[in-house]
Amino acid sequence: RSAGDAKHLALASSGTLVTDIRERLGRAPGTHVFTGIYCISPEFLDLIPPSEKISVIPAFLELAAAGKLGAIVLDDGVWMDLGDRESYLQAHRDLDLGPAIHPDANVSPEAVIERSIIGPGAVIERGAILRDSIVWPGGHVLSGAELDGCIVFSGDEVSGPHRDEDL
Questions:
Q1: What domain count does the chain have?
Q2: Is residue 56 part of a domain?
Q3: Using one digit for the tens of pLDDT, what is the confidence trace for 2-22?
Q4: Which of 59, 114, 147, 153 allows an S-S link to 47, with CB 3.0 to 4.6 Å?
């Protein structure tokens, strides 16, 4: 995409080749946003060590250095970069979903939920207070917890006060 805050890709003047990523090759500053959506050929997998969990960026840099990393610029539609916690939370705010509580969540009527998203299978006990927070599927917020700007991961139990934390 040509618009957005995280412009980390530099493209050739043709707009069809990536020439640099985050200026790691020293060729050019970023002019486009990397959306994380890509198509790869089977040969790309040769650049990834088998049975290892790694970033694809080093492989992309190798291809960019060799002039073999293609690009397509699509600017239609809405795009939100969710690459860090603040942008992830901001996207939920921008969508203005209100108190979006999944029907399979178990939320006490005595809990206070403001501008928060509650996933399926999540449990929010009585007296819990959530503001600008996201509870992933299966997350559990205990009685008396107070969360502001937090993300509760699946399977985790959270108690006490927390602000701007991933739990």
A1: 2
A2: yes
A3: 877 778 889 998 989 999 999
A4: 59
pLDDT digits (tens, 9 = 90+) for 19-69: 999 999 999 888 888 887 888 888 888 888 888 888 888 999 999 999 999
Ramachandran sector of residue 18 (left: φ over 0; alpha: ψ -120 to 50; beta: rest): beta
Q: Which amino acid is at 78?
A: V
- 90 found inside a domain: no
Q: Is residue 89 part of a domain?
A: no
- Find the domain containing 30 and state its range: 7-65
Where is the domain boundary, 42, 65, 88?
65
Task: Supply the pTM of this predicted model.
Answer: 0.67
Please state, in angstroms and rounded to a whole number, the distance separating the CA atoms of residues 114 and 147: 10
Judge if 58 and 108 occupy the same domain: no
